[in-house]
Amino acid sequence: MAWKSWRAARRRRKEEALERPRYGWIWKPLLALAGLYLLVTIALGIWWSQPPAPFDVEQATLERRGEAAYAPAARGTVTVATLAETVETLLDKPGGYLRNDIAPPGVWLDNMPNWELGVLEVSRDLARALPGMTAAPSDHLEEARERLEGDDRDWFYPSTEQRLEQAVAALDAQLGELGADRDGFVPGQGLADWLERSAARLDDLALRLAASVGSHEALTELAVEAESLPPRTPWYRVDDIFFEARGTGWALAQLLEGVQRDQADVLAESGAEAEWERLLAELARTQRRLWSPVVLNGSGFGLFANHSLVMALHMTRARDLAAQLAERLAEPPASLAATAEVAETPPTETLPEESEEAEPVEPPVVEVERLEEEVVEPPPEGLAAPEE
Question: Which pTM value belongs to this model?
Answer without folding.
Answer: 0.78
